[in-house]
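note to self: dont lose this again. the chain is below, predicted strucutre after it. 204 aa total, dont forget to put it in the shared folder this time
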Amino acid sequence: MGRRGEDRILTLPNAISVVRLLLVPVFLWLLFGRDNREAAAFLLGGLGVTDWVDGYAARHLGQVSTLGKVLDPTADRVMLGAAVIAVLVDGSIPLWVGVAVIVREALVSAAAVALAALGARRIDVQWAGKAGTFALMAAVPLFLAGHSTASWRHPAIALGWISAIPGLALAWYAAVTYVPVAREALLETRAADPDRAGALGGRR
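---
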């Protein structure tokens, strides 16, 4: 059983996560519709900051919810994935950095879906993954600003690399350490319901 109040839906942190998702198309419009890299970078940077704001609000307002535990990392992945693909298409981010981010996000998302399909318990987001995502959400708009006409474009590129390298290291570290945790979650599921686990295994 979850803790009391965790079944709430209408909370400030959840509202922030929804707004973040709704602003992703605005970012794409600024980048491709208005061809304004600087404005798109500022919006994306602001969305990255709100990743910290909704978590802070959830903890300090006592509004941690089951929905929020799913919605927040989902918003992170949608935002980061859309941003990286868009900036790759724009040509403002190094190809290997963009590919490393996309591959990592695809693997983690696929693992989460597979665990849910197998009935395993949900795995909480790790601090390393959260920190890595935050650093990458800073790096992407910085690379974008670095290819704009902004007066600070050269420092932006340097700051982009400073954020991207540790961000990738943390994100991939979290992905690797996710493996034994996911295995443990599957073993717990099999131990709790061997008939279901056997049926799922027989479908392979």
